[in-house]
Automatic annotation (TrEMBL):
It comes from Alkalicoccus halolimnae. This is histidine kinase. Residues 41-258 form the Histidine kinase domain. It is found in: Cell membrane.
């Protein structure tokens, strides 16, 4: 509580009363803590690749660059870490744009059959590298009002995660169903799954069930936070169903009339 007090003086100039005002600042404190945690997380996430870039560059300058094998090895690490840094910064910028006051969606009619096929084509090589099949099944009229670029980002993040968190040889299924009032997109994998306890946390910024696994696969820990914000901006519902060791399904339910829902 935040407490303010003021004396009430009577006409005889004697203290008559004291007024105390109690302000419940729990929410404010929580917000402040979230902001502090976020800054600490960002600093840590930025520092890790920078430390590594600095270390390998110094080692090269100290003489390692005269050894051809070491030079190649260290430069490869430097290139990989620079790329991580770039992805992290662009995810952070994207998140701050989405969370910004002036963020607006570019509403247009989007055919989810077309959008899904664009995304699966984009990620086909990545799936192939892990011997995975990407199956897509679409039925009904799957046109909705949405921001095509942003919705594409949602699908990329979900399908990319499905590939990353599924062992070699698994299957990814993308199901798009046109219902009377909604269009439902499901991305299912046969991967490592997520425990019930962890499901609510995975949409938090920088939360990862397994930090090392996420890092190794180029993850920033921001993908699902971006998905959650973009789903909310579309007035869409997102849900997760998962069985550890068996697989996960992410389900996105888009309303055909997103504006009416808002009212
Ligand atoms: P990251 O960059 O770490 O993948 P995300 O925000 O996309 O960050 O996801 C947060 C965490 O949720 C991941 O680190 C992972 O632990 C978990 N996760 C996301 N998608 C899946 C999935 N399809 N299967 C299992 N775990 C997942």
């Amino acid at each position: 509580f935040d407490v303010h007090g003021a004396p009430i003086i009577g006409q005889d100039e004697k203290l008559k009363d004291i007024v105390l005002v109690f302000h419940d600042i729990t929410e404010l404190k929580k917000l402040e803590q979230t902001r502090k945690d976020f800054v600490a997380n960002v600093s840590h996430e930025l520092k890790t690749p920078v430390t590594s870039l600095k270390g390998f560059t110094e080692t090269l300058l100290d003489g390692a660059m005269h050894d051809e094998d070491l030079r190649e090895k260290f430069l490869t690490i430097i290139a990989k870490e620079s790329e991580r840094l770039e992805v992290l910064i662009s995810d952070l910028l994207e998140l701050s744009r989405i969370e910004g006051e002036h963020f607006n969606l570019n509403w247009e009619e989007v055919d989810l059959a077309v959008l899904t096929s664009e995304v699966t084509t984009m990620l086909a090589d990545k799936a192939k590298e892990k011997d995975m099949n990407l199956y897509t099944k679409t039925d009904g009229n799957v046109k909705v009002l949405a921001d095509s670029a942003r919705l594409k980002q949602v699908l990329i993040n979900l399908i990319n995660n499905a590939i990353v968190y599924t062992p070699q040889g698994g299957d990814i299924r993308i199901r798009v169903r046109g219902q009377e009032e909604n269009v439902v997109i499901e991305v299912s994998d046969t991967g490592i799954g997520i425990t019930k306890k962890e499901i609510p946390r995975i949409f938090e910024r920088f939360y990862r069930v397994d930090r090392a696994r996420s890092r190794n696969s180029g993850g920033t820990g921001l993908g699902l936070a971006i998905v959650k914000h973009l789903a909310e901006a579309h007035h869409a519902k997102i849900s997760v169903d998962s069985k550890p060791g068996k697989g996960t399904t992410f389900r996105l339910e888009l309303s055909r009339k997103p504006f009416e829902e808002k009212e």
